[in-house]
Structure formats: structure tokens, C-alpha cells
């Protein structure tokens, strides 16, 4: 893939509207390139230099930390078209989390923060969109932390399903459908519980007529209940 075409694959996703494709394609020198990672391969570690933002071209990436007790804490699971490492734009000089590929052939493109800051100096609208996106991401993380502290598993799971429906849902005759949904294991990691508890709670919600679900899809049948 040539440098001048490294960002074409984001033309069909919302994030590319934020990343200003017309400018990026005219500045191929600003792009570090792309790299394909295997499942479980680390993209960056805690304390690595923070001077790059990343865009996911294919596959999934999880952002995680480890607690003082050594427990794994998953902060986010991201897919195609989503960005991570964005705190580098806010002055973070070292990574405070780990980024890890979740799928084989996870392709990630990288952009130097120096170049993005150059664009931001020249384009107020671009700057506004970038910071707005970062602000929304940080609010989402704060909300999930609050949920972990103050809400039970059922409430956390329902909030997460509602969030996914708002971001990726499609209204159908059957309800709001969310395709390519998370596995029960990934859901458990994100809301801080066990896979068995997620499965049990999803079954309860289905028995109550609130949702229906299959391997990689959830249908919210009664949105007002969420």
C-alpha cells in the first residue's frame, strides 16, 4: 500500500470525517505507514513514548491496564475506523495504558502528533472536531468508571447495550439492531464481571422480552426500558 493511499480505507467510516482525508492524502510524509498485528500482539506498552495516534483499518484493538493486584482491566475495545492513543495530543509524553490487537491481521495506521498539531494550527474546524471527539471518548470512559463503582451488573450491561445502540444501532421492524456485537467474554471484560454472569443476565433480559440476541447481534425490542 503506497503512502498516498494509506487512509483511503477510512472514507466509509465516521472517524475519517474527523481526520480530514483531503488534507492527509495531500501530505503523505505525515504518515508513518501501516502495520499488521497478530492476535495478542502488543501495539504499545505502558511508558512507551506517546507521540503517535493510531487508526484501526481492520480488526479490533483493546486498551487495558493492570491493577495493583495484577488483575487485567479492559478500558475499551475498538474496531474499524476508531482511533486510539489520542491522549498524546493532550500532552501525554508516555503511554499510561497498553494497546493490544485482538484479531489476526489487525491493521493499524499511525499518524505523528506533530503533523496533526500542524493541521490543527491551520484549521480551527479540524481542531474543534478532534478535541470534541477526544472529549466524548473521555466522558464515555468516566461514565463506565462511575458505572463500575455505583451500579450493579444488570444496570451496567443495560447501559452498555444502550450505548452501543446509540452509536451503531439500526432501527428495524424488530427493534434496534446492533450488528457485530461483542462476545460475552469481551462484554464481561468491559463491564467488570464474569462471562457466565453476562450470559445469565442476557438470558434474563431476553426472557423478559427486552432484547433478543444471537452470536454477534443484539436486538433491543423495548428501547424505552433502557
What does this structure look like?
The protein has 226 residues and is of the alpha+beta class. The protein has two domains: 15-147, Sandwich (Jelly Rolls), CATH 2.60.120.10; 152-225, Arc Repressor Mutant, subunit A (Orthogonal Bundle), CATH 1.10.10. The protein contains seven helices and twelve strands. The strands form three sheets. Strands 1-8-3-6 form a four-stranded antiparallel β-sheet. Strands 2-7-4-5 form a four-stranded antiparallel β-sheet. A hairpin with a 5-residue loop joins strand 4 and strand 5. The longest helix has 27 residues, at 124-150. The radius of gyration is 19 Å and the shape is globular. It starts with 13 loop residues before the first helix and ends in a 6-residue tail after the last strand. One of its GO terms (cellular component) is cytosol. InterPro entries: cNMP-bd_dom, cNMP-bd_dom_sf, Env_Response_Regulators, HTH_CRP, RmlC-like_jellyroll, WH_DNA-bd_sf. Keywords: DNA-binding, Transcription, Transcription regulation. It comes from Owenweeksia hongkongensis (strain DSM 17368 / CIP 108786 / JCM 12287 / NRRL B-23963 / UST20020801). One of its GO terms (molecular function) is DNA-binding transcription factor activity.
